[in-house]
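Input record (one chain):
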Amino acid sequence: MLVTWGCLIGLLSGGLCLAAFSLSLNSITGIPRAKLGQGFKLLRWRAVLIFAGFGLLGGYLSSEIRSPWLSSDMNLLAVTGVLAATALLMALAMVDLVERRLPDQLNLALLALGLTWHLATGSPISDSLLGILVGGGVTLLLAILGPLGMGDVKLSAALGALLGYSFILYGLALGVLFGGIAAIVLLISQKLDRKDYMAYGPYLAAGGWLFWIIVLL
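The corresponding structure, as predicted from the sequence alone:
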């Protein structure tokens, strides 16, 4: 029964991801309903894969997740939080790939979710606040040097709220590794020039998310 609920929450989270993506696109104008329709049209068959992926992820997490701060009867709450964070991170990654920007409203939503996660799980809120400072501070230095933009800084701060001070550096390191590998592949395949701007948000999001899931499981 718990797995069924997890799948349903996963499907709802897939809808949240697609809605957040569509409504955040500056390249699509119109009223919210029109933007939603055009966003789904832009993704086409990929939208079905996103729904299916979130449904499967929800079912899997509902049977496997074991957070040290949550008792077994709160597993469904943990699954909901993880899926909501996953939806926001994927929406951020997709917008960055399409428009080369990371919307402030999605970063703020992720930051708020990170703080709420720590409060709900009984983890020290100071860990989340320090994570914001460390995540944002480290990437701000990188942005000053050139490789990253301010959107990446805000995303890293939001990831810091989610992962906390204890794990944010590991998550960022994994994201930088993913981004470096992707850059090498794109350069070798000549799909990216040394002077071209590369969307780094998807790799930071993937690294932070993956390390968070590893810690939870």
